[in-house]
Amino acid sequence: MANASPQTTLLQGYLERMHAGDRAARDELFRQVGGRLERLTRKMLKGFPGVQRWAQTDDVLQSALVRMLRALQDVHPASMREFFALTTEQIRRELLDLARHYYGPQGAGTKHASLAGDNGSRPPYEKPDPSTEPSLLAAWSEFHQQVSKLPADEREVVDLLFYQELTQAEAAGLLNVTVRTVQRRWQSALLKLHQVLKGHWPGL
Fold it and tell me: Which pLDDT belongs to residue 182?
């Protein structure tokens, strides 16, 4: 951490105190990173078409933080890089559960989307919303689940470039690797996703 910024050093100190059982340090850490986590949640929510129709950023974040606190009982990230990777995963899991909840067989979203007039067509006052089509929602859910299954180094690059929308240079700096390494991991991740999704990218 010789080249770490003062902010990173501060956060790392909170993290170490938190692992030592200092609850005040844990609360302060979450306060310090709250703005970043909110921005991350908002960006990730955009990648879950239809869910944002039913869930607000704050609600998703609060539920994800509950997951995070449970995860921290068993997992002890050694660095802020690991901390944010764990947080990203908890937000993704929360959004996947929401997608299943609202657009599963008995989900409110499915019922809402299936509203019809007497002739079996969509009511004239309700315009079609392509983002809530079951096939697209299923494709997006599969995409996010497959991201979770990527090797850790590739998943981390996808988290930074796709979910957090960092540039390759920014991701390289955060990971302390070369831009070429980021590019290699990104291309490898895309290839794996392409193969498992059989080329059916959900609107990417």
Answer: 96
Half-sphere exposure of 124 (CA within 13 A, CB side): 2
Q: Higher model confidence: residue 176 or residue 124?
A: 176
The pTM score is 0.70
Mean pLDDT of 64-75: 92
What are the C-alpha distances in Å from 2 to residues 43, 152, 161? 31, 25, 26
53-62, 139-148, 168-177, 178-187: segment of lowest average pLDDT:
139-148
Q: Burial, 123: exposed, middle or buried (Cβ in 10 Å; 0-12, 13-18, 19+)? A: exposed
Cα–Cα distance measured from residue 4 to residue 82, given in angstroms and rounded to the nearest whole number = 15
The two most distant CA atoms of the chain are separated, in Å, by 70
- Residue 158 to residue 43: CA distance in whole angstroms: 13
Of 128, 147, 132, nearest to 201 by C-alpha is 147
The conformation of residue 163, written as its DSSP 8-state character, comes to: I
The two tokens of residue 157 are 């690059």
Compute how many other C-beta atoms are within 10 angstroms of the C-beta atom of residue 49: 22
With a pLDDT cut of 90, the percent of the chain lying above it is 33
